[in-house]
Design a protein that fits this description.
By secondary structure, the protein is an all-alpha fold. It is built from 12 helices and 2 strands, in the order αββααααααααααα. Helix 1 packs antiparallel against helix 2, helix 3 runs antiparallel to helix 9 and helix 5 crosses helix 6. The longest helix is centred in the middle third of the chain and has 21 residues. It comes from Alkalihalobacillus trypoxylicola.
């Protein structure tokens, strides 16, 4: 079981060179072409955990893996074919209304909704309110992390905060989950910190989907509704202001945002 952990850095390197060789790259905020390959590492590590069947949690089941794979594919298609504009759910819906043209963003919205509906059925909620709560989390979390992924390590830092919250909430993960989580976080820290590779839409949305699964599994209904409210508020703000500009104007947030980026990409 633990030997397979060594496959994660190998997968990170192989996917990096594979994406570079076929031109699956995007220009980052520094103007450099970077492969969006780190989502492969996240997906691969999650698939290994589900293969081990570490617990009775639905969040680490084969059914959950189907949801995660769908989200990854949707994000990858957006990385591969998506245009720079329009932005956000509102932007894509407005573009569809005005131009009568389906964007990859619309495909992402529909695909994520279908994947979320599938996963709601797997969780087997006992009433409509619970089903709606699950759906909102499964649908909105991938969009949230995608919005955050405009600078290196932002999703990484949010991931740390998320897992600390779960731990403070009383969640006790197995040793294997901890080892896998730390390994993936370390790989992302090094490769994103050096600006060697990025999560891309495929990686960021996959991380968000994993957040949704564990929030449903661990958190109480009250905390789940709170998370939905926070996500919706963040989405509304993101439609009106630039997250990067907001962070840059606040010294403490800007310091935290830059933390880890002292690792410069080798020339």
């Amino acid at each position: 079981m633990y030997i397979s952990i060594f496959l994660l850095p190998i997968m990170a390197v192989l996917s990096l060179y594979a994406f570079q060789s076929v031109g699956w790259t995007v220009r980052n905020f520094e103007g450099n072409e970077i492969p969006y390959s780190l989502g492969v590492v996240v997906l691969f590590s999650f698939s290994l955990l589900t293969d081990f069947q570490l617990s009775n949690y639905i969040a680490t089941s084969k059914m959950a893996l189907v949801y995660i794979v769908i989200i990854w594919i949707i994000g990858f298609v957006d990385d591969l074919l998506g245009a720079d504009a329009p932005k956000g759910i509102k932007g894509h819906l407005k573009y569809l209304w005005n131009e009568k043209e389906i964007t990859t963003g619309i495909i992402k919205i529909i695909g994520t909704a279908v994947a979320a509906f599938y996963m709601v059925l797997i969780f087997e909620p006992d009433n409509l309110i619970t089903a709606l709560r699950y759906f909102f989390l499964l649908f909105l979390f991938p969009h949230l992390t995608n919005l955050l992924d405009t600078r290196p390590l932002r999703v990484w830092k949010v991931s740390l905060v998320f897992w600390f919250i779960l731990l403070a909430y009383g969640f006790t993960p197995s040793f294997t989950i901890v080892v896998y989580l730390l390994t993936v976080l370390y790989i992302l820290l090094i490769m994103e910190g050096h600006r060697i590779a990025m999560l891309g839409d495929n990686g960021a949305t996959t991380v968000g989907a994993i957040f949704a699964l564990w929030t449903i599994t661990i958190a109480t209904p009250q905390i789940q509704w709170l998370m939905i409210g926070i996500i919706l508020i963040f989405m509304l703000l993101a439609e009106r202001i630039s997250l990067t500009t907001f962070i840059e104007r606040r010294p403490l947030l800007n310091w935290f945002d830059q933390l880890g980026l002292f690792l410069k990409k080798p020339q």
